[in-house]
Amino acid sequence: MLESFKKHIASRLAFLNSSKLLIAISGGIDSVVLTHLCYKMGLNVALAHCNFNLRGEESDADEAFVLQFAEALDVEVFVENFDTKAYASDGKLSIQMAARELRYRWFEALATQLQFDYVLTAHHADDNLETFLINFTRGTGIEGLIGIPEVNDIFVRPLLPFSSQDILAYAKQNHLTWRDDSSNASTKYLRNKLRHEVIPVLKAINPTLLQNFQTTLNHLNDTIAIVDESMDAFLNKAIDNVSETSMTFKIAAFKEVENIKSYVYETFKIFGFTQWNDIENLLDAQSGKWVSSATHRLIKDRDFLLLSEIENAKPILQVILENASKIETPLGILNFEIVEGPQKSDSKTIFVDKDLLHFPLVIREKEEGDVFFPLGMQGKKKVSKYFKDEKFSLLDKEQARLLCSNNDIVWIIGKRADNRFKVTEKTKTILKITLE
Amino acid sequence: MLESFKKHIASRLAFLNSSKLLIAISGGIDSVVLTHLCYKMGLNVALAHCNFNLRGEESDADEAFVLQFAEALDVEVFVENFDTKAYASDGKLSIQMAARELRYRWFEALATQLQFDYVLTAHHADDNLETFLINFTRGTGIEGLIGIPEVNDIFVRPLLPFSSQDILAYAKQNHLTWRDDSSNASTKYLRNKLRHEVIPVLKAINPTLLQNFQTTLNHLNDTIAIVDESMDAFLNKAIDNVSETSMTFKIAAFKEVENIKSYVYETFKIFGFTQWNDIENLLDAQSGKWVSSATHRLIKDRDFLLLSEIENAKPILQVILENASKIETPLGILNFEIVEGPQKSDSKTIFVDKDLLHFPLVIREKEEGDVFFPLGMQGKKKVSKYFKDEKFSLLDKEQARLLCSNNDIVWIIGKRADNRFKVTEKTKTILKITLE
């Protein structure tokens, strides 16, 4: 394998020869073999090991193993300990996502600070095949079928053409030792089923499965290159405006293409949407109609689709566009009007600093954990506490509606405005909102 | 299943309700269930059964079963007997390909003659999934992963959203009987391995596998729509000229795109090529270089790529473009010159009617079965017979080279010209070819 590894580096990754490289090493067979191959080739490498402290003594034994391995090869090694569980719970991430984020962030920081040109990871052909099959069983698009990129920014995967069988053979031939990772049992279950039950049968059907898979990946990547090129051209025409929190798309651009659905899908797929028919219908819908994903909201606004990011999205009832003047709500009609000079808010009429609002505003019901800053009061208050203090009946509570900007409450409609949006000396544009 | 079948027809294939339909029925469970569903829905159907006479009594029993089934439902039925083996050997086709060709040809003829609007076939979701996996194990591009089209010209597959499980359940519920097909063992081996060993594990990993697969197919089809649209635009620019036997592509068009390889692949993949790097290199190669597939040849000609169809392609040694004036060959230099007035060919110099030639000409060795029409003789002669009559030594035979147009011999170079290309009264352009 050393010979074919050398050939592979020479033909496709020759830039590694003259680079300072950091190898991400877990202590498992793949990263141990990658390290050994790079060492044998005389590449300029150092090692980086993350101890995620998720498996107690086992994690520490992995760390000790990596330190020993580095010493045996006389290669520099960096080790970082993470409190992965705390990071996951702070960021509301799965343990797996948290570990991934910590790992990649640390590698990037190390590379920047210590001038490593590239970080090598030990993904191989079977990883790629398993990822393909996992995505396939879940349902995916072409982007889920094209595998892990060989080079992605500073991350390089030199083992991608090699099978786990190649890697095991090399490890045995070179009398290498490695650590088996018992973690990640749920992913392991899935990958193990594929590895032991599905892939062997596919290989029996076609012994050159992995090479054929490589052919497929190459063709799919070629196809993606064409899609990307034509999407770039399309988005150049379609995008009207981009701000920090939103993007505006011209509906006319979608109407010009032959297959609208395809362009809708390609344009919005990275924003977590799944209701493709609804989005297609949005093109011809009334202004103010919208479709949400877990992270984004797409709103019809005259000749445009307005895409905005939503944090911790809550179910919304209505959307209010920047140019709205009159909106019918279950509580009555809301009027919006730009006015001159500061005036005092009351329960039915509020005056807010328009520049502090992030349009589109939304109207929604109260949700668990809602907090606001009641106008005229110091500090914040739970909306549930406010309801209680104001002696709201159960019906009052159910019928209460919140006017929000980016999930911040602007107004408990018809009841109490929020301090954060009030008119101050700095206000340039005053928006008057009245409940009829 | 009848209800969901009705819904599917109503929502996606409503045109079937007012059409005259022919159902392709083998007697197997899938086509029996399709027939029964259409019958129950009251669609206007007739049946068409092919007896390929490949399994003796079994084939006849299938035919008898279909006749009986049609009578029980009181539905018109057409049966055709084919001598599939003879057709296969005549056309040098596999039995499977021959049966496929015969079947689709007959369906089309029936539909045309008897005014059927559509032909229904019983492909279902598991067929689609198996096809995906088979193509995947062989290595493919996106076109091998998008499944069987629901509607393709007059052919419609109304069972595509339904699984084999749905179909079996319906057959049992309705006490239907059907014939099991023992043929096609090699395909069956492959499909059986997938059906019994791979797909159940994938379904265990994800019980909604078939729905998720449908999602994947939809996304991939969306992607293909974008690729098709941009390839249409690209080919509009790239294609310079199309004749009955060839197409000319502007190399400049390939040089303008971002990812040349992708466009090379998408442009030429339907012509059976596999050497994508060679074709990419052709863009910058000398005029006269070429790459062949089993059916086509792509030749560099100045600023163009010339694609020509080749029947029963034989290995070629050299290619001669229309504008060539001097070509070095192992026999000496060939000179090409347009001349005025008729002159007499001899062994070293021939005069041919240029308009009868299909460029590019090729130079090749003699192959088994080669025949030509010796100039000045009546009728044709085997080249091997000519060699024998002329008392060619073994070395003479080995060194002999044939100048060919579309596989027809123009000249046994330096020896004897062919009658078919000689200059006549009708000749407008005389091409003089000399061997120095």
UniProtKB/TrEMBL annotation, chains A, B:
<dbReference type="InterPro" id="IPR014729">
    <property type="entry name" value="Rossmann-like_a/b/a_fold"/>
</dbReference>
<dbReference type="GO" id="GO:0006400">
    <property type="term" value="P:tRNA modification"/>
</dbReference>
<dbReference type="GO" id="GO:0032267">
    <property type="term" value="F:tRNA(Ile)-lysidine synthase activity"/>
</dbReference>
<feature type="binding site">
    <location>
        <begin position="26"/>
        <end position="31"/>
    </location>
    <ligand>
        <name>ATP</name>
    </ligand>
</feature>
<dbReference type="GO" id="GO:0005737">
    <property type="term" value="C:cytoplasm"/>
</dbReference>
<dbReference type="InterPro" id="IPR012795">
    <property type="entry name" value="tRNA_Ile_lys_synt_N"/>
</dbReference>
<keyword id="KW-0963">Cytoplasm</keyword>
<protein>
    <recommendedName>
        <fullName>tRNA(Ile)-lysidine synthase</fullName>
        <ecNumber>6.3.4.19</ecNumber>
    </recommendedName>
</protein>
<dbReference type="InterPro" id="IPR012796">
    <property type="entry name" value="Lysidine-tRNA-synth_C"/>
</dbReference>
<keyword id="KW-0819">tRNA processing</keyword>
<dbReference type="InterPro" id="IPR011063">
    <property type="entry name" value="TilS/TtcA_N"/>
</dbReference>
<comment type="similarity">
    <text>Belongs to the tRNA(Ile)-lysidine synthase family.</text>
</comment>
<dbReference type="InterPro" id="IPR012094">
    <property type="entry name" value="tRNA_Ile_lys_synt"/>
</dbReference>
<keyword id="KW-0547">Nucleotide-binding</keyword>
<comment type="function">
    <text>Ligates lysine onto the cytidine present at position 34 of the AUA codon-specific tRNA(Ile) that contains the anticodon CAU, in an ATP-dependent manner. Cytidine is converted to lysidine, thus changing the amino acid specificity of the tRNA from methionine to isoleucine.</text>
</comment>
<keyword id="KW-0436">Ligase</keyword>
<feature type="domain" description="Lysidine-tRNA(Ile) synthetase C-terminal">
    <location>
        <begin position="361"/>
        <end position="433"/>
    </location>
</feature>
<dbReference type="Pfam" id="PF01171">
    <property type="entry name" value="ATP_bind_3"/>
</dbReference>
<keyword id="KW-0067">ATP-binding</keyword>
<dbReference type="Pfam" id="PF11734">
    <property type="entry name" value="TilS_C"/>
</dbReference>
<dbReference type="GO" id="GO:0005524">
    <property type="term" value="F:ATP binding"/>
</dbReference>
